Amino acid sequence: MYDWEAAWHAALYGPSGFFARGEKPSAHFRTSPLVGPELAFALLELLSRVDRALGFPPVVDFVDVGAGGGELAFAVRSLASGSLADRLRVTAVELGPPVELPGVRWTSVVPSCVGLLVGHEWLDSIPCPVVTGPSDDPWIARWWPGLEDGALAEVGSPRDAAWAAVVASVRGAALAVDYGHLISSRRFTLTGYRAGRQVPAVFDGSCDITAHVALDACAAAAGGDWVLVSQRDALAALGLTGTVSGSGWDWLESAARAGRIAELRDPAGLGSFGWLLHGRGVAVSDLLPSLPPWRPIPARTSEA
Asked: Fewer Cβ neighbours under 10 Å: the N or C end of the chain?
């Protein structure tokens, strides 16, 4: 039987794997941190709410798991201000070669976190077994009911375990931001990305290999206090609404910012991503107001 999970892992993280040799996601598909600084501003607002709920600890962490080129970690470090900036420790977690960025420390192992841990498009890159239905795999039985005979399916249990482990390392909040599907809309999504184009998934290290995340299963695996909402709604709740004001250069800057926010909140694109937020020692209701539950769109639309 072909071992999809082992082949997938070797293609990304083996000696000549895609990420192991230094490829960065920014060269192959468009992600929210590449749009502009607005995502970092929103996450700093979320971090400030976590900080307040924790009682302003002497050191507050921002941990970026699956940091890629460190764009998000560096933006958060650069844009932090006031007391939070003085106490902020930013850690980028990545298996590939680190990038020298001022104020960002790098590690290949998820550290304990007092603050906010973010896995931005991390879970989709965790390799999974692939099975053909019908299957007796217990994860499939629970999270992919009705899998048709002969159909392929990604088994999400490695992602569930990875997310549960990182959530357990946190005091504060853990946030997964990813594209995915729910039990009501499961489909086989394994694919590749190379140089801004979607390509067939080949396991020779030449492309990024990814698949949609069963965020509902990840949420259940980590347990506790959590919500699953859309990026569109979460960003608005954190103050990103994209209004245009002022005149002259101020108007131009405001309009440019509004355009970037519109891209981040596009319901047919990045705005459809799921935000899975777990509170650990803080109440999720202290971090985000009540928002509509997440409803995914059929396909990923974030490639460059």
From this structure: N
